[in-house]
Amino acid sequence: MSSLEEFLVFKDVAYTGNITRTSERLHMSQPSVSIHIQNLEKEYGTQFLDRTNRGVTLTESGEVFYGYAKEIVQLICEAREAVLKAATCHHGIRIGATFTIGEYLLPFFLREYYTNEQDADIDVQIADTEILAREIMDKRLHVALIEGPVPDEPNFTVETFWHDELVVVVPSDHPWSASQSISFSELASETLITREQGSGTRKVMELALARSGFNHQDLNIRLELGSTQAIKQAVRCHMGVAVISALTVQEECRLKQMTALRVKDCSFARALSILTHTKGNLTTDEESFLLLLRNRKKLSEILPKPIIP
Length: 309
Description:
Blueprint: H1 4-16, H2 19-25, H3 30-44, E1 49-52, E2 55-58, H4 60-87, E3 93-97, H5 99-104, H6 106-116, E4 122-126, H7 129-137, E5 143-146, E6 156-171, E7 181-182, H8 184-189, E8 191-195, H9 200-211, E9 220-225, H10 228-236, E10 241-245, H11 250-254, E11 258-263, E12 269-277, H12 284-293, H13 296-302
Helix pairs in contact: 1-3, 1-4, 2-3
C-alpha cells in the first residue's frame, strides 16, 4: 500500500521535474527519492517518469497518477487540519515568515498583538519563500508572511500588507558612503555578498535588475550566506558590499556603522505579502492577527521609520 510520503515525493518530483531538486526541497537523499518513485511504479505496474540527463518528465500514466496524487495529498492535509482545528478549539496561531519579516518586523507585530490578546499561543516558523509556500500548499501552515514571488498557483491567496525596498549597503568608511546612489556598472565592479538561491531577497534583486535591463550574471558574486545577519557582519568586515532589505539595516545606519544606497535607474521596491490557502481554515486567533496586519494606519504607528537615501 502506498504511503503518504511516497505520494508527497512523487508530487514534488512531478512539480520540479528534477530528483535532485526534490531531494533538496524535502531534505532527503537522492537515492531515497528514487526508491519512493520506484516503489510506486512497482506497485502500480507502470512507469511514471521518463528520466533524462536534464531531469524527468511525466509519462502518460504519470500524468494521470499526478492528478490523483495531488488530490490525495490535499485530502489528507485537509483531514489533518480539520482534526487539529477541532482539537485546539479554534485557538492559537501557526504562522510562517521569511527571514527579513520574521527577524525585523514580526517582533513588532507580536508585541502589538499581545497587548490585546495576551492568552494567544503563537508558533512561528522562519524559512525562505519556497519552503513556506510548500507548507501553505500542504496546509501544514495557515498563514505565511513572505517577501518574494510565489508560484502561480490557484490555491494561493496573496495580499500585500506592507512595502519594502532593497538597498546597497557598504561600511561607513567605504568610498561610496558619501553618495546616495551608484550605477549598475559600479555595483558590478565590487565584490557582492548575497543571500542564497531560493531566498525572496535574491529573487527580488534578480527580477528588479532584469526589469531595468541589467543582467544579474554580470555581478561579481563571491559569497552567498543564508542569513541577513551574517551578510551584515561580512560587510562590516569589508568582505564586500551587499543588496539587502532597508528594514534590516536601520540600526546600523542610525549608528553610522553602515550606509544604504540606491542603484541608479533601478527600483528594488517590493511588496511584503500575506500568503494563505484559498481553502484553508484559519483559527479565530489567526483571523484576529490578520486584522492587525491589514490595518495600515496601525502598522505605520508601530514600525520604525526607515532610513533610505
